[in-house]
Design goal:
Order of helices and strands: HHHHEEH
Helix content: 40-55%
Number of strands: 2
Shape: globular
Strand content: 5-15%
Distance between the termini: 24 Å
Radius of gyration: 16 Å
Largest sheet: 2 strands, antiparallel
Number of helices: 5
Strand order of the largest sheet: 1-2
Length: 120
Amino acid sequence: MANMTELAGAVTGKALLYLKETDEDIERYPVSIVDFVIEYAVRQSHFPNYYSDSDKARVLSNYVSILAMMCNNIYSKIGAEGETAHSEGNTSRTYDAAWISPALTGALPNFVNTPSTIGV
């Protein structure tokens, strides 16, 4: 993957495939969710300062399935943003996190305490 736009396209495509598997009726996936998830993933991965956007996209391209599941995690909470529990009528839902499941964010790369490779 050469850049974040290509990465976003791959994530959107994969997320739509997951939604089709669950018979979710959706014609267009909200791009704002994909943008949010990629930005969130970049922050959670703690990339070194010398990584360019291309470097970040290259690394995250190995995690397209995880990013797609993160998108669906956010998408499924539309109407209950920021909540860990939501009730409406006779339907009650509980979530393990207000935004994205820690199980998904834990699967992302994390560069904290990774030694620098500059000059190697």
